[in-house]
Write a structure and sequence with these properties.
Strand content of chain A: under 5%
Radius of gyration of chain A: 20 Å
Strand content of chain B: under 5%
Helix content of chain A: over 70%
CATH topology of chain A: Farnesyl Diphosphate Synthase
CATH class of chain B: Mainly Alpha
Order of helices and strands of chain B: HHHHHHHHEEHHHEEHHHHHHH
GO molecular function (chain A): all-trans-decaprenyl-diphosphate synthase activity; metal ion binding
Number of strands of chain B: 4
Largest sheet of chain A: 2 strands, antiparallel
Shape of chain A: globular
Pfam families (chain A): polyprenyl_synt
Number of domains of chain B: 1
Number of strands of chain A: 2
Number of domains of chain A: 1
CATH class of chain A: Mainly Alpha
Protein name (chain A): All trans-polyprenyl-diphosphate synthase PDSS1
Radius of gyration of chain B: 21 Å
Keywords (chain A): Isoprene biosynthesis, Lipid metabolism, Magnesium, Metal-binding, Mitochondrion, Transferase
CATH topology of chain B: Farnesyl Diphosphate Synthase
CATH superfamily of chain A: Farnesyl Diphosphate Synthase
Number of helices of chain B: 18
Oligomer: heterodimer
CATH architecture of chain A: Orthogonal Bundle
Largest interface: A-B, 43 and 47 residues
Catalytic activity (chain A): 6 isopentenyl diphosphate + (2E,6E)-farnesyl diphosphate = all-trans-nonaprenyl diphosphate + 6 diphosphate; 7 isopentenyl diphosphate + (2E,6E)-farnesyl diphosphate = all-trans-decaprenyl diphosphate + 7 diphosphate
Order of helices and strands of chain A: HHHHHEEHHHHHHHHHHHH
Number of helices of chain A: 17
Amino acid sequence: MKSEGCRTLSTQHPGPGSVSVPQYETVDPYTLTEDDLKIVNHNIRQELLMNTNSEELQRISTYYFDGQGKSIRPMIVLLMARALNYHMNGKSGLSQSQLSMAMVSEMIHTASLVHDDVIDSSDFRRGKPSINAIWSQKKVAMAGDFIIAVVSKILANMKNCDVTSTIAQALSDLVQGEFMQLGAKETENERFAHYLTKTYRKTASLMANSLKSSALLAGADDQLCDVAFQYGRNIGLAFQLVDDLLDFISSSETMGKPTATDLKLGLATAPVLFACEKFPVLNPMIMRRFQEPGDVEKAFELVHKSQGLEQTRFLAKKHCDEAIRLANTIADSPYQKALIVVSDFVITRMK
Amino acid sequence: MASTPAFRLFCLGRQYSRSYEPISWLCAVRNNGVYSQERKISSVAPAKHNQRPDWNRAVSEAEKIVGYPTSFLSLRWLLSDEIANVALHLRKLVGSNHPLLKTAKSLIYNGRNNMQAWGLIVLLISKAAGHCKVDDIEEDKAAGVLYSQRALAEVTEMIRTSHLVHKGLVNIYPNDYDSAELSDMSFGNKIALLSGDYLLTTSCIELAALRNNEVIDLIASAVRDQALSEFVGNRDKQNNPLPGNSEMSSAEEDWTRRNVLSAGSLLGNACEGTLHLAGHSKIVQEKGHKFGKHLALAWQACLELEPFTNLHYTPNSTFNLTSAPVMFHLERDPSLYTEINKGADSIYDVDYAKVHSWRRPDSPCQHHPCHGATLIKTTSTLLSSTWLNPPSRKEAGAMCT
């Protein structure tokens, strides 16, 4: 059924992602930021090791900083920083604090993964045993707190109060997003808004606020900071929408986790919420968080029968287009082009 | 008490608690066996009334001085949507064995004993030292402290609470629970983790609003140290500390290191931070730091001494195996390790009566009261040499003794 769904969709849609890639074929965001990212990863490990003598805590806290992650957050922070530096001064050189900002964005993301692992029962993440499979819950929780403490120290040393406030907001959003996921049962009308707010807080806020910080550190004015923020917000929302979509169509190899994970966790994501319009029978299932036998399979089937996947794809595409529009308001440079390619990446993942 | 609605527990408990007569109320709670997270393993027979009245009096007097009942310190964050949400979820845990409920209870019902006092001390130090700011807008006239100092006092409470809540997670091992229990435990862990994270990130917002990078660095260091404290020395399967396997040479160093990380760092840095906010010199800030750190240590020492000075030791009640009396004793007489090592899997496998029976007139643990007294003396000396505002100083002093 999984592969069937996948095939049907890919024949229906030749893939909106293929539209703009050729134009920028020469610009590869990863190549552009490769050297920077190595420094970022190395510095993160150094900071964490420096802050504790406990070998165990060192091992736990650096466990996911093995250079194997996608590093999407630090990558766009670095790209935006260089693009804006060029936009404002004609020079794309990176400041030390902007490099630190890239570290901060990756560390916060990883800290949230570490805490996710405390309550997740999955044994694998990023192709290796997940942290909770090796260490006890209490120690993993403490390691997450430790990473956040080190992040706060890095922020304090940046000595930019606006940046500190911006990132504090992102942290708070992450936790509030988790609370929203615990799910007060809303009415059908509120549900989609609830889902979007949750998605913003859990995923997009960190990107948006990291990029805004990177702009603040470039000395950008309010308007330019907002361009950076909105770019991050749109990329973040698109990114999550695509993730939610892939949960229904991709096989476990490409995602690194089994499909329909969200349904099994009782979460109603965009495809289900859209499908609800055509199949109201999904409503009670959402309310009981797909807990009755057969719920997950039935919901999975109905989503594929509805326009839910298509509508999700359309929404993601809209956010990507908006991100591209924003990126185009920044002066031409390889880094600015790379920001556009990144949004294409997001769409390409959907194919 | 377990059936008390969780919402009231979380949001209104502190208000209600003020309407009770503190001492008898506290003793009633203690008789019911409710102890804070830290005291869980140091529970002894309920204290006699005449042994603890000073504490409650000290707190009420101190509250009068700063013009601010400590119960309100954390009200702002207790009344948020997120916490109301947590409270709803807590209900589901009533009747389960998850310690989160116990943690929650201890935050409310045993609040006067050792939780709330931290913010209060920060306020007392703030008031005792006065401030060098001229801007009237920043000062809360009624309390005589700056708004920023009050925020820092709140943050101090939140960060300490966050750590206690995270410490209250349960380590789950395969085959420990049947499936119903397992789902209770996992759910409890989830709520505990999120609640702690909520307090931590709310602290971040509050701190960022102070727009003072030095203070942020101080508090961030304290958060780091709290986390580090959970990695010191031997641990049983629930991460409860056991003595031994420390790189420290002496018991005193070992004990001090553990407790500076878990407590001294936060109170020390918070006191230093509040003096920084008031515009005091580096020297005064440094004294504030020492005061907070030593007060936290002295406090801890007093708590740890209690099971050994109290005449009514309840058979089989437990106490902290890394408490100063036990550690000092082990230094003199390592043979006690044979008993303590039985706790390698769970500290509850240790025969506490046996460990406790080492307490004899000629026993080395008598060394400890002197040590506690030294700590208290250091603290009081620091205090008297530093500040001039007499009533606050007196109260802070009273809280030391």
